[in-house]
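Researcher: Checking consistency across runs. Here is IS3 family transposase again:
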Amino acid sequence: MAWASDITYIRTGEGWLYLATVIDLYSRRIIGLSLSNRLKKQLVIDASEMAIKQRRPTGKVIVHSDRGSQPASHRYREILKNNDLVCSMSGKGCCYDNAVMESFCHTLKTELMQGKAFSSREQAMNALFDYIEVFYNRRRRHSTLGYQTPVHYEMAA
């Protein structure tokens, strides 16, 4: 079992909003997310804890991320270790190592935000939650899943 995580930045009329997500690489389902107006390690910790609570993993799970300061923090790695999760990090300067997350962030920005402007962080938060939980996980079909949604793919397994 393997998960991947990343952070992306969302521009709003009130300033930046930061989105941390954790994706299950088997089903492409977003299993953890966290939003904040501050780019701190707690952002990735909250998204990871959501994924852990949702999946309750047993056995070895690899959690991959880039080498940013948030996922490289001692506290984040401690949480993974305490939940028997294995930390994996991209090679220095190699975005291809986290390609699934980079692709998700690009897809989100293309499908949700292209040509739109969020006047507030709250407006962006609501739109992001709806996109991820209502559309991406339950309605958006993925070619890698045989054109099934992540939720349907997991149910069929």
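Researcher: Does this match what you'd expect to see?
Model: One thing to look at in this run: Helices lie at 41-55, 74-82, 99-113, 121-136, 150-156.
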